Amino acid sequence: MNRRYRLAHRKQFQRVRRQGRSWSHPLLVLLAAENDLSYSRFGFLVSKRIGKAVVRNRVKRLMREAMRMRLHEVAAGWDILLIARTPIVEADFWRIGEALDSLLQRAGLKTKPVQTTDVAQ
What we know:
This protein has about 120 residues and is an alpha+beta fold.
């Protein structure tokens, strides 16, 4: 994911946790707070109770890729924090994607995907 779309500093994470609203799913928790930017930024939290470093890093990679694939569907102007829950360790990429879709929909952050039409010449 491009650096522009990342929450990078502790204060940014804390602001989302303090001011944001949350939605939960058995695999993930989504917190969202408005920002004053023309694009949305994302942060990913995976606690040590999820597993050792290898497991945590794998979970973060899966979460980042699932979000990256949905960037064009997320409303602009939000700071979004995704927190992994313990059952995510057994989940595959597609289940994580479905959980993310569900959370974005419930939070009202999912816009309709842009339709592209191929013009035959």
